[in-house]
Design brief:
Layout (H helix, E strand, L loop, with lengths): L11 H4 L4 E2 L10 H13 L10 H21 L5 E6 L2 H16 L5 E5 L4 H14 L2 E5 L16 E7 L11 H10 L3 E5 L18 E5 L10 E6 H5 L11 E4 L4 E3 L13 H17 L1 H20 L4 E4 L10 E6 L4 H10 L2 E2 L1 E3 L4 H6 L5 E5 L6 H17 L7
Parallel strand pairs: 1-13, 3-4, 3-5, 5-6, 6-7
Antiparallel strand pairs: 2-8, 7-8, 9-10, 11-12, 12-15, 14-15
This protein binds pyridoxal-5'-phosphate (PLP).
């Protein structure tokens, strides 16, 4: 059984030593190296990047630009790709919708979305589809995360899906889906929010078009995220937000824009966030994604075994452990997910309950809500035991006498 335990790396456990934090899919805690390097940036190098000729501004610019390269290296993306920094995955997904999709989709074209996509994928695409008269179609999944239909057709211009579903925990077969979409000439938006920092990612093995992520889910500070995309796609895209820094030349009536990726980064950028993101990447690399993924799979396997032993639990997502990310969604018979989460909180176990920003998925699965446990590699087998004991406690509070 896995013995990894790196809670000592996370200062939050000094303040809350007894906490069992299992809401990692929402946001991760920050290791010491991330908070220290971010603080150090503000103490030693703080300044506005790209604007000044003086020492600190040059330093900020260097750090910021180094961040782009480190993200690409982390994902195994070569010189065909570029990193655009955004404040989170949501902003990156809106950027793609309002630029690439808006420019390239015409009335009657189809946008195909996996039903387990997060609202941050679905809502921006809905807006564009409506404006352009495009047709939004869905790839449906059942409660085990198995696709029920094939909505990709010769008219599909965009396929959008999460690499790992935050509502079902499924790791999609992105290689096969990318190929399927590319065969009909579609461009793929891969939402990597639940994949980055959890599973080894190697762009060299895939033909990724757009990949989006949030730093705060991978141990980096809140307020930094990004879009990694093929330069050829970015170069053909108009700007998203406009203002300072993203221009080449502005006259009274017209503007020419900066090249890629600066064209998509209007205003003063979050250099401290990029510094924190680089620290998070170093932190993840120091343990290695293969080890991290192995540990998280061991936690999933253990948690599934424990939950399956409880006859009052319904679990969602794939049976096959190799198709599961670091999260499990489930329901407890007789108790609303919000009550489950509140009762677990009494035992200092933090989990998420609700629709997980996947209302279309929930509606399709005929669920109003579910509970979700999601872990980072600093979680332990003991955390899972405490979580399962707390679920049993919730049933007791609701008056059930369970025999198992
Ligand atoms: C799969 C997925 N995509 C996108 C997002 C949006 O992330 P953010 O709120 O950081 O923009 C989330 C957040 O939970 C998510 O789980």
């Amino acid at each position: 059984m896995t013995t990894m335990n790196h809670k000592g790396d996370f200062p939050i456990y000094e303040t809350h030593p007894g906490m069992v934090y299992l809401d990692h899919a929402a946001t991760s805690h920050k290791p010491d190296i991330v908070t220290r390097r971010t603080e150090s940036y503000y103490k030693t190098s703080n300044s506005s990047p790209h604007r000044g000729a003086y020492l600190l501004s040059v330093k900020s610019t260097e750090l910021y630009d180094r961040g782009r390269k480190e993200v690409l290296d982390f994902l195994g993306a070569d010189e065909r790709y570029s990193t655009v920094f955004t404040k989170n995955a949501t902003e990156a997904l809106n950027l793609i919708a309002q630029t690439h999709v808006m420019e390239n989709v015409k009335a009657g074209d189809e946008i195909c979305v996996s039903i387990d996509a997060h609202h941050s994928v679905i809502v921006p695409l809905q807006l564009v589809a409506k404006r352009k008269g495009a047709i939004l179609k869905y790839l449906y999944l059942d409660r085990t995360g198995t696709f029920e239909n094939d909505a990709i057709t010769a008219k599909t211009k965009i396929l959008a899906l999460p690499w790992i579903s935050n509502g079902l925990g499924k790791i999609h077969d992105v290689k096969a889906l990318l190929k399927r979409a590319h065969d009909v000439g579609a461009v793929v938006i891969l939402d990597g929010a639940q994949a980055i920092g959890h599973i080894p990612i190697d762009f060299a093995e895939l033909d990724v078009d757009f990949f989006t992520f949030s730093g705060h889910k991978m141990y980096a500070p809140q307020g930094i995220g990004g879009l990694v995309a093929k330069k050829e796609l970015l170069e053909a895209m108009p700007p998203f937000l406009t203002g300072g820094d993203m221009i080449e030349y502005v006259t009274e009536q017209t503007t020419t824009y900066a090249g890629v990726p600066e064209r998509f980064e209007a205003g003063t950028q979050n250099v401290a966030g990029v510094v924190g993101l680089m620290a998070a990447i170093d932190y993840i690399k120091s343990y290695g994604l293969t080890k991290i993924h192995e540990h998280e799979m061991a936690l999933t396997s253990y948690a599934l075994e424990k939950l399956k032993a409880l006859p009052f639990i319904e679990i969602y997502g794939p049976e096959d452990i190799s198709k599961r990310g670091a999260l499990i969604t489930f329901n407890v018979e007789g108790i609303h997910p919000h009550d489950v989460a509140s009762l677990l909180d009494e035992k200092w176990v933090s989990i998420r309950a609700g629709h997980h920003c996947t209302q279309p998925l929930m509606k399709h699965l005929e669920l109003s809500a579910s509970c979700r446990v999601s872990y980072g590699f600093y979680n332990t087998i003991e955390d899972i035991d405490k979580f399962v004991d707390a679920v049993k406690y919730a049933r007791e509070v609701f008056g059930y006498v369970d025999v198992y």
